[in-house]
Amino acid sequence: QAAASGRRAASRAPEAHNVCRLLTRRARGFYARDAGVAHRINLGLLRKIICQESTKFKNVWTTHSASPIAYERGRIYLDNYQCCISSIAQEPRILYQKPKCSKSEKIEDALLLECPLGEMLPSPSDYKSSLIVLTVQNWLLRLSADSGEVLEKIYLAGSCCKFRYLSWDTPQEVMVVKSAQNKLPAAARQASIQQSVLFYLAVFQVLPLSFIGMLEINKKIFGNSVTDVAVSNGILIVMYSMGLVRLYNFQAISEQFMEQPFDLGHEFNWNGQVGVVGKYPFGLPCNIKITDTPPLLFEASSLENAFQIGGYPWHYIITPNKKKQKGVFHICSLKDNALAKNGIQEMKCCSLEPDWIYFHPDMSGRIIHVGPNLIKVLKLKEVKNNTEQMEIAEDFTIVANRENSVSNAVTVTASGRVVKKRFNLLDDDPEQETFKIVDYEDELDLLSTVAVTQIGADGNAHLDFHCNEHGILLKSIPLLESWDVTYSHEVYFDKDLVLHIEQKPNRRFSCYVYQMVCDTAKDDECSSREKTERVFCKKGGRIFEYI
């Protein structure tokens, strides 16, 4: 009996050991049946399907609007967010349609709010996507993303300031509401009345929505030449008219200068006023009073206040603060301001639109530099035999297809006459293929580019997907509608969806929705630029056209 008991204990020992290993791997994110692992596998399969030669993207429907069109996570918003359409269905499906709002209810800005993972929330509605909107009358509303129902209302302030902008300090965690710059009326300026407060910032924790504090940016503290201000990743960024950018620790400021914390919906007595926090007519108290210049973290001077931080170890990108240096980018160490080896990047292109540069959003620390016909992906690496210095090296390049472009300055006619060109084409001449948009699809790990060639009134554009690691071209999708380079364009690539929003003159907006199809019999229909038969239908008072 003792021997049998010993054998059972011995047989359970490896099982217990395996359970411990499984729990340890799960804690580290290696559990094979975890939802996150399954999601990553599904996205990997979707990427393979998208990049197959037989997979096409079909323009399933199109709509037009007299007001701006916005897109957020499978939802298309029209009529100043009064109408929401699902972009998932092959035919337009209106999620909600509200009555036309008055000018006093106009929405100035909006942010999509997603449910945080692994947290207990006070209300069942908090577990669904919602839209935070800011109205012209200083109301902050949280709306259901699927029904438009008002879930929460917060009154920010009276007529002392006009809040206009929403942004993330920490995405999906901390939100910042910024006012327009305070400017005195002409009569007040003529009367020599001084205006010391330039901006107001209200900061909120989201889901559940809670008030952190409101502060003012005062010229007595930060100087007279402040032109703009922002809060990002816990840093207060102050910009000046002479190109100077200064960084301050926002958390340290809020802790040092917070006069009193307040909770939304609670009664308060503040500077002789009695009211409820976030309710009309009192709004929110300005409870962070900066009375002295806070400690400076960092400052830099850059043309047009262009300043970016990223990479590993930390580096920043600026343009020397001289007009003739436009298009020249310096990549420097944040630690000691040392210029990286090969840290001066310049395309040396002659174009109407400038090239642009930014840190890659995939958190790899790489840098993307986009010119009219060339995209360079750069990386930071240690200088050989000098671990203290970093150098900029080329990871890969993507080159526009300009095989048909004629660059010869001298041509000979059939009769033998020599003709010399009086001018050279610009690098971004519409008749040559030119990069207009570069973006990154994080869930599929694909780098997307939009390249355009316009001859006369007809412009042809195509959306290309490149391997994010090596830059190899994996897929090219023609956009069937004509692309006018003089118009404003936005292109969204969201997994199996491509969306093209176009702004034409006289505030005319168009939205073209493409969806992935794998039926090889429809190849010609999906890729042909010839006009196909379209059906027009009216839903919710709006006309849609689809194939």
From TrEMBL:
Transmembrane segments annotated in the record for this chain: 197-217, 229-248
One GO location term (cellular component): Cul4-RING E3 ubiquitin ligase complex
InterPro entries named in the record: DCAF17
PANTHER family: DDB1- AND CUL4-ASSOCIATED FACTOR 17
Protein name: DCA17 factor
Keyword Membrane listed: yes
Pfam families: DCAF17
Species whose genome carries this gene: Cochlearius cochlearius
